[in-house]
Specification:
Layout (H helix, E strand, L loop, with lengths): L1 E5 L4 H12 L4 E5 L4 H9 L7 E4 L2 E2 L10 H12 L9
Parallel strand pairs: 1-2
Antiparallel strand pairs: 1-3, 3-4
Length: 90
Amino acid sequence: MLTIYTKDKCFYCKNLKKNLDKWGMDYQEVNISNSDTAMKWFHNSGHKTVPQLYCNNIDVQRGESTGLTKEVLIDRIERAIWPNLDSGIE
């Protein structure tokens, strides 16, 4: 399952959640505005902006959320679940 880290009144957070819903992706939301623990983890992970999207504790967003497509996200999720995924090129 995906975890999306958000803040209150964040346009980019709302937009990414809308896309995840449209793409049929299940996710849990962690609002860092409401949790000191989440806020501490967020800053310790080096993040400065929201949203941030994780799968299996691996950053699958890797950059701006506005450039993320369903195909790219699916590939990154597969690699987060199966880190030794063979590219098929020998």
